[in-house]
Write a structure and sequence with these properties.
With 149 residues, this protein is an alpha/beta fold. It has 4 helices and 7 strands, in the order αβαβαββαβββ. It has one domain: Rossmann fold. The structure holds adenosine-5'-diphosphate and magnesium ion.
């Protein structure tokens, strides 16, 4: 499956939300069980859609939504648990420290972060950075910009 990572590094266009989900689902199968994913992209780019696919790939049954009132949610799964963090409303490093998320930087927790720019200095050096965006209407792109592997 290293093919998938190569394709992601080159950048992939998806033509529906479902296609973005299945892409993320395939990625979930090759991710280390302690991976941190920094999902960069504007509102509507497909970050949450991508996390839905990750969850599915990890065998997680609970539904993934945009956390409006919560900063993060934990979804337990049989392979790994998925921690979904929306950093949008975080203002500074102290706020992220108070969440004590360090506990989720280890196996078997996969941490997926929306608006990672907000907590850039907190993110581990080994984080996988993705850019997501809209090309046109249903066409969105996903690109892996940096990964530890
Ligand atoms: N190819 C695509 N990939 C991802 N989402 C798409 C695509 N085409 C249309 N969409 C729609 O775009 C929206 C993306 O929203 P969302 O995943 O919540 O974005 P974000 O979390 O980045 O704000 C969803 O309504 C989704 O159905
Ligand atoms: Mg979102």
């Amino acid at each position: 499956m290293p093919d998938l990572l190569q394709q992601l590094r080159a950048g992939l266009t998806t033509h529906s939300a479902e296609e973005t989900r299945s892409l993320a689902e395939r990625l979930a199968h090759v991710l280390p069980r302690n991976a941190t994913l920094a999902l960069h992209g504007d509102l509507g780019a497909g970050k949450t859609t991508f996390v839905q696919g990750l969850a599915h790939g990890l065998g997680i049954q609970s539904s993934i939504t945009s956390p409006t009132f919560t900063i993060f949610t934990i979804h337990r799964g049989p392979i790994a648990s998925l921690v979904h963090l929306d950093a949008y409303r975080l203002e500074n490093d102290r706020q992220i420290d108070s969440l004590m998320l360090e506990d989720f930087l280890i196996t078997p927790y996969i941490l997926a972060v929306e608006w990672p720019e907000k907590i850039a200095s907190w993110l581990p050096e080994t984080a996988w950075h993705f850019s997501l965006g809209i090309t046109s209407e249903q066409n969105h792109f996903v690109r892996l910009d940096k990964s530890a592997a």
